[in-house]
Structure formats: C-alpha cells, structure tokens
Amino acid sequence: MDSHTLTWAALLGRWIEFARSAVALPDDADGRAWKQAIPAIIGLQAVCMALREVDDLPADERALGLDRADLLIQQHTAELHAAFDRLSLHPMLIELIDDAAKTLSVHQKN
Question: What is the pTM for the complete model shown?
Fold first, then answer.
C-alpha cells in the first residue's frame, strides 16, 4: 500500500467517525445545524484533497476539474450558510471555506 492510500484511508476513517458522532449532537438549533452541515464539511474536505492532485491531470481534464471544484466550493459554502441560517458560522467552518478557496486559487494560477 502506498503512502497516498494510507493517507486517504486515515482521512476517510476520520470523516466517517465524524459523521457517526453527529448522532450524539443535541437536538437544539446548534446541534441540528451541525448535523445538516456534515455533508458540506466532508464535501469541502474532499474538494481540497482532490485539488492537491489536479496538476496530475491532462490539461483539458485539469480545466474541467478546476471548474467543478469551483462549483462544489460554492455549493458547499451555500449549504453551510443555509444550515446555520441565523447562527454565526463557527470559525472552523470559515477557515475550511477559506482553505478550499485558497487551494483552488493556487491551482487556477498555475
């Protein structure tokens, strides 16, 4: 097994555990928002991981991948804002959104 596979397996395990832990969240507005946000959080992390390897793609596939990443970042960001509606986004979520946007920006400049 190569180091990428091990890294991916560890990442996947962490996010599966994160998703499982959501059942323990309280049934209040904050807990419901976090439960609703889990797919978007995992989606943003997946986009960031995929962007790390986008330069390995042929040029036409790379351009398509960057366009898709941009759309996914916008979609997942909107989902987070919808989940938290009138609640403030946790700083961790703001950082996650910023990291995804910065990662995309770096690859768009290459």
Answer: 0.83
